[in-house]
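step=encode ok
step=design start
structure_in=
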């Protein structure tokens, strides 16, 4: 018989959801009731007509993460959040997997938290961005859950599609997760609405001003991932071929209205990479056309947190030494010289990525192309 707390969760998910909310989960009772509370609060905003919670749904700072929100005419900057344009880039490297040596690669990864030494003004100009956005953060990963990870193809699941895309299983791969750094936060602060649930009409002067700066921050984030990728390729002496770049924090036109994604990958922009924790697999998937737009053309953007950062630190710092967390159960290495962050971002703090992807498959939203194994995850290194 289910435990009493489980029964409460089942009832909670079964009867108290707004008709506006769709949960993409084979078993909604697994979702955190606090995150569902946040979805319900957002669904009550005047002008919100649809909300989708994805399998990686978890509690955020006032707004559930792993969610999409649609309105016919209004936008809410805080539904996107402060890291506008945050997303995933995936590159196939020229380096043969057979020549990849973990220890050697790890020793080469120095100076990558420092400002980029390239021509920042030329870089932003090439993206039609104004010179004032050529700041020292461009080309750096940032903190939190951002990372660069070297990977290998563990399993090709759809061989025909993999071959059609011209991909190679004998290469090293690299995933970059970063965003707009402080720029997106500055845009959010400049356009906050009071009360926050009021939002603004997209066609209003205030809405147009926000959207213009939002789009700049989103372009900056794409450029940031490209420069990060180039820096890491240069460090290990490899060339990189871009496979995809997707944004999971943004607001875009959709079906005549406005779609906000907060930790939700787009299902209408081609290939998608869905990462697990730093100690778990990642997945390369093909979105399947969602004719009924059941999930607002959105997918899970990762495994999703199981524990908050403070909870993860409290639970794990008493059980593990830092050295224990510098290697994972899959044999990969972790470079993270921030003594708190290494606990906050430990694999144990995240949900099971296999279950998240299975939920997307069960809902008929994705077809898995390949599974990738982590080799080395880089987060931050102390200045030498």
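sequence_out=
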């Amino acid at each position: 018989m289910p435990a009493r707390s489980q029964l409460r969760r089942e009832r909670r998910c079964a009867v108290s959801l707004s008709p506006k909310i769709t949960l993409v989960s084979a078993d909604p009772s697994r979702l955190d009731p606090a995150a569902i509370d946040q979805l319900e609060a957002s669904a009550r905003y005047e002008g919100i007509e649809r909300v989708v919670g994805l399998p990686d749904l978890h509690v955020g700072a006032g707004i559930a993460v792993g969610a999409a929100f649609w309105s016919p005419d209004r936008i809410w900057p805080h539904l996107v959040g402060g890291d506008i344009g945050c997303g995933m880039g995936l590159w196939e490297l020229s380096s043969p997997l057979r020549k990849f040596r973990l220890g050697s690669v790890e020793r080469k990864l120095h100076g990558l938290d420092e400002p980029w030494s390239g021509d920042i003004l030329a870089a932003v100009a090439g993206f039609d961005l104004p010179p004032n956005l050529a700041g020292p953060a461009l080309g750096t990963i940032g903190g939190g859950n951002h990372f660069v990870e070297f990977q290998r193809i563990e399993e090709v699941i759809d061989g025909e599609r993999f071959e059609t895309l011209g991909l190679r299983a004998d290469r090293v791969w690299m995933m970059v997760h970063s965003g707009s750094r402080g720029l997106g936060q500055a845009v959010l602060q400049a356009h906050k609405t009071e009360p926050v649930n009021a939002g603004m009409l997209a066609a209003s002067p205030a809405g147009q001003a926000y959207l213009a700066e939002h789009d700049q921050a989103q372009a900056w984030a794409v450029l940031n991932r490209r420069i990060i990728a180039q820096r890491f390729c240069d460090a290990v002496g490899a060339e990189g071929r871009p496979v995809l770049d997707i944004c999971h924090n943004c607001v875009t036109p959709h079906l005549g209205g406005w779609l906000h994604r907060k930790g939700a990958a787009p299902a209408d922009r081609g290939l998608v990479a869905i990462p697990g924790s730093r100690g778990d697999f990642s997945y390369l998937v093909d979105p399947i056309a969602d004719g009924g737009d059941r999930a607002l053309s959105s997918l899970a953007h990762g495994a999703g947190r199981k524990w908050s950062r403070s909870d993860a630190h409290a639970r794990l710092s008493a059980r593990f030494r830092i050295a224990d967390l510098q290697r994972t159960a899959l044999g990969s290495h972790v470079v993270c010289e921030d003594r708190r962050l290494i606990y906050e971002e430990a694999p144990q703090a995240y949900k099971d990525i296999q279950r998240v992807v299975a939920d997307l498959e069960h809902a008929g939203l994705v077809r898995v192309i390949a599974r990738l194994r982590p080799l080395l995850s880089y987060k931050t290194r102390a200045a030498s």
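step=design ok
step=annotate ok -> Residues 1-16 have pLDDT under 50 and may be disordered.
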